[in-house]
Write a structure and sequence with these properties.
The chain is mainly alpha-helical. The protein is built from 5 helices and no strands. Helix 2 crosses helix 4 and helix 4 runs antiparallel to helix 5.
Length: about 110
């Protein structure tokens, strides 16, 4: 039988994973915010981006969107391939040690 503590651990893990997921998993949400903040805005000024939009409400040009999407997709691929290395570490070290090491690296990342 499963104890309430195991369900509590599962819910806490889900909450921690949701909060520490980072920017890349939420790229669809953040892309518009990054674009409006001016990330890669130089792509709109160099004339190679298809020109500025005539709509004042649209703060992003097509070249800026494309550059932002390419960077986000590349980072998603890098993140996906890192799961292979994490799986190998998990197999070599075991679940408890790999989990503790992952938490330590995550905590270090928050500190940096």
């Amino acid at each position: 039988a499963e104890s309430p503590a195991s369900w509590l651990r599962l819910l806490l893990f889900f909450a921690a994973a949701s909060l520490s997921g980072g920017v890349i998993p939420g790229q669809n949400v953040y892309s518009r915010l990054f674009c409006e903040a001016g990330l890669f805005s130089y792509a709109c000024r160099d004339g190679a981006g298809g020109g500025e939009s005539d709509d004042d409400d649209d703060a992003c040009c097509p070249a800026q969107w494309l550059l932002l999407a390419n960077v986000m997709n590349a980072l998603s691929c890098i993140m996906a391939f890192s799961f292979f290395a994490a799986g190998l570490l998990f197999d070599m070290l075991g679940g408890r040690l790999a989990g503790a090491g992952g938490c330590a690296v995550n905590a270090l990342g928050f500190g940096v």
